Amino acid sequence: MKTPLPKTQLRLVLFVLCTEPMSAQYVFPFINQLIKELGITGGDDRKIGYYAGVIESLFFVSQALTVLYWSRLSDHIGRKPILLVGLVGLSLSNFCFGLSRTFWALVASRCIAGALNGNVGVMKSVIGEITDDTNMAQAFLFLPIVFSVGTSIAPLYGGGLAKPHDRWPELFSGSFWVQYPYFLPCIVSVLFAAFSFFFTILFFEESLPSKRCRKDMQSEVFRTDAQLGAPTDKDASPVPILMIPIANYGVLALIDMGFFALLPLLYATPVEVGGLGLSPLAIGLYMSAFGVGDGLFQMLFAARVIDRFGERKVFCAVVQKKVGPAIWILIFAQLLSWTMVNIAYVVVYVFITKASPNKHSLGTMHGLSQTTSSITKALGPATFTSLFAFSKEYNLLEGNLVYVVLLILLCLLVILSRCLPELKKDGE
Questions:
Q1: How many Cβ atoms sit within 10 Å of the Cβ of residue 121?
Q2: Residue 180 Ramachandran class (φ > 0 left, ψ -120 to 50 alpha, else beta)
Q3: First to last CA, the chain
Q4: How far apart are CA 63 and CA 372, in angstroms?
Q5: Which of 47, 42, 202, 23 is nearest to 119 (CA)?
Q6: How far apart are the C-alpha atoms of 19 and 87, rounded to whole Å?
Q7: Of 268, 258, 276, whose CA–CA distance to 380 is shortest?
Q8: pLDDT digits (tens, 9 = 90+) for 261-275
Q9: Mean pLDDT of 220-243
Q10: Radius of gyration of the chain (CA)
Q11: What tens digit of pLDDT does each residue of 6-27 get?
Q12: Taking the model in full, what pTM does it have?
């Protein structure tokens, strides 16, 4: 029988988590236009992909260098202080990004966000601590839904609020908005992160067992030792090889991040160079539509699919589904097929959580997985957008070399998914 979800605490965690995709995704509709307007490429639109990929990757580069330390620190001082530091980092980074007028200023602002932010790994640890084996997958299911909400809202205001002096000259007629045409969507992200900061101070309850009150701590230690603590002959970790789920997570993140870095670049690239020449508003609408559809799919079908077929079968089926039409067919079918990918994230979160020897090391375990994910996510945008630009510039495979490389990585993920063990159900 499933344990009821701790709804109040889970809602708070998910609300705070929403700041992550919003802060990451709102720049996508206008980042290529911003690079062009700043004159970074010297007027050569084919080189936009190089610089866009670097800027999009820097968050994950700096995060990869620090996230394990933040996660390990949260195992000692608690989850709440680390979450607050991360929210401050996001606010500061978004504010600086909106005021950036040079390439290196953009670089610095993205590095601030990554270096000060270990929140995703910490919040996965929180979910692992407030759930058990019976409801863990159900709780992790909400993570991709939250990311879908963020990816729906962020591109919408990122593209819709860009250059407000052109759309609403009577409200934004000052020279400031002409000089900083993308500050308005940045400040929206700042305000949301700041609101989450105060929300966390007021309502978030510390989940780290050693930092709870004595009564709750004793209850948690007893439950942990009896049910979920250090592995014994009777209750060993169901995922003995820790690196298998982490490797799957890393390759999945690499492909997923590369895909989403390529999409806005393909949409924004001029038609004569091989793109679609869409405006930031159109790009924002397309990506928002994907987020809505993705969230509905996760909400309506994902939990039932996982309960029916089990974690391993679902993960293997999803990554095999990705090999094929998602790369080659029209935009709508591309985005529609990608809605199934987030089920793979839910499953791999469960594998990683159950690979932890006990709940007292969840922060370190998720920190290690988030470090791997951050490295691959850092490689994704820079690698794939640069390869896109390289393919177009030298007309390799008629400009389509980047898609061949992506297809090869998808095949690698299929092979890795076959190495995952079956997770036993309770009572087996």
A1: 31
A2: beta
A3: 14
A4: 10
A5: 23
A6: 8
A7: 258
A8: 777 777 777 766 666
A9: 43
A10: 21
A11: 888 888 888 888 888 888 778 8
A12: 0.68
